[in-house]
Write a structure and sequence with these properties.
Blueprint lengths: L1 E3 L2 E6 L5 E7 L5 E8 L18 E4 L5 E6 L2 E8 L4 E9 L3 E6 L5 E6 L3 E6 L5 E7 L11 E4 L5 E4 L3 E4 L27 H5 L31
Antiparallel strand pairs: 1-2, 2-3, 3-4, 5-6, 6-7, 7-8, 9-10, 10-11, 11-12, 13-14, 14-15
Amino acid sequence: LASGGDSVAVATAYQADTLIVYQRDSNGELTPVAYLRDGQLDSQGNRISLEGDNKQLQVAPDGRTLYLYSGDLLQQFSFDPANASLTRVSSQQVAGVSDMVLGADGNVLYVSLASGSVSRYSTHGALAWVDSINRTQASALSNASALQVGADGSVLVIGQGLALLDAPGLKNPVYQADGPAVVLLPNLQLSDAELDALNAGAGNYKDATLVVERVGGSSAQDHFGFKD
């Protein structure tokens, strides 16, 4: 069970595994408004897999995005209260999740593995892995079983010992394969002293080139452009 905004979500493992969303009114009364069962199609025709005993569930602060781990599958769902529908946004295979928790602003999902690691995922758009730390870097992460996020953004991990991790916010855009365009440099200004001196000091950048390439090498499918 998890809640965010006026939404309360429950993931059941009885008979047909089911993800249920309730809405809470001003009196605290709960009304079921949307659900998905294991094997059912979501609002976009995606067949949903919910089977698994070790379920972990988180709800974004606005109550409109849900994160469910079940059966080695980490899934992100959007909830639309207008038409009472649930839609899978993204999914990825992750084995052995022991706990997961959202940061206070909902921008980061922290996931611990019993094998001894903690990962961060960006929640901007589709869920995207950002980075990890494991037991070779902090021995207390061995057998990591529970997470808690502090008001200052630090992450407390309970494992073989206690580990307090400094987790600065994700201020830079995170690129996602097949995702929407990402603004890399919203206020970039470039200048060249020699080109500025041309044309009697008025400058001339004709035939000048700018090369942008992602770390790890370029791909023919990469596209870079300018936004007005």
